[in-house]
Design a protein that fits this description.
Blueprint lengths: L24 E3 L10 E6 L7 E8 L8 E2 L4 E14 L5 E4 L3 E4 L5 E5 L5 E8 L7 E2 L11
Antiparallel strand pairs: 1-2, 2-3, 3-9, 4-10, 5-6, 5-7, 5-8, 5-9
């Protein structure tokens, strides 16, 4: 007898849905950043082509590990001062109102500057059940405080 019941993959709601602020806040998983940060999943899916949307709040000097998104990633900066870098490119400073697009499979990282917290909205589409692939930590030597 098989006691394992397969779970249905997450999918976007099939009708208008309101998610109240603060109802889905959690600490980030281990192994994706230099220290944990707060993430609020606003829209979750594992279905091909659907979007996942997250609001992140990152403490000063916390950055993600290198990562890629199979269908790219869009960031909209809400507050604070952040940093972002694509592999081989310069470190860019980000401020409220700035938008960043990372192309599909473009290796990159982002996070808070040395002296400021950083908050942003992140949008990425799902491909083959995943919206992100986490890689190794960033070598911090090239990042100026």
């Amino acid at each position: 007898m098989n006691d394992h019941v397969p779970t249905k993959p997450k999918t976007c709601p099939g009708q208008m849905t309101v998610r109240r602020a603060g109802t889905a806040i959690a600490r980030s998983p281990d192994g994706i950043s230099s220290a944990p940060f707060w993430a609020e999943m606003l829209l979750e899916s594992e279905q091909e082509g659907e979007n996942t949307v997250m609001r992140a709040t990152v403490d000063p000097d916390v950055i993600t590990h290198w990562h890629t998104h199979p269908r790219g990633q869009f960031l909209y900066v809400l507050s604070g001062v952040g940093l972002a870098q694509r592999d081989g490119g310069p470190v860019e400073e980000l401020r409220a109102g700035d938008c960043v697009w990372f192309a599909p499979n473009e290796r990159h990282w982002h996070g808070a500057s040395y002296r400021s917290a950083f908050s942003y909205i992140s949008i990425q589409a799902v491909h083959e059940g995943k919206s992100v692939y986490w890689l190794e930590p960033v070598d911090r030597k090239g990042i100026k405080p």
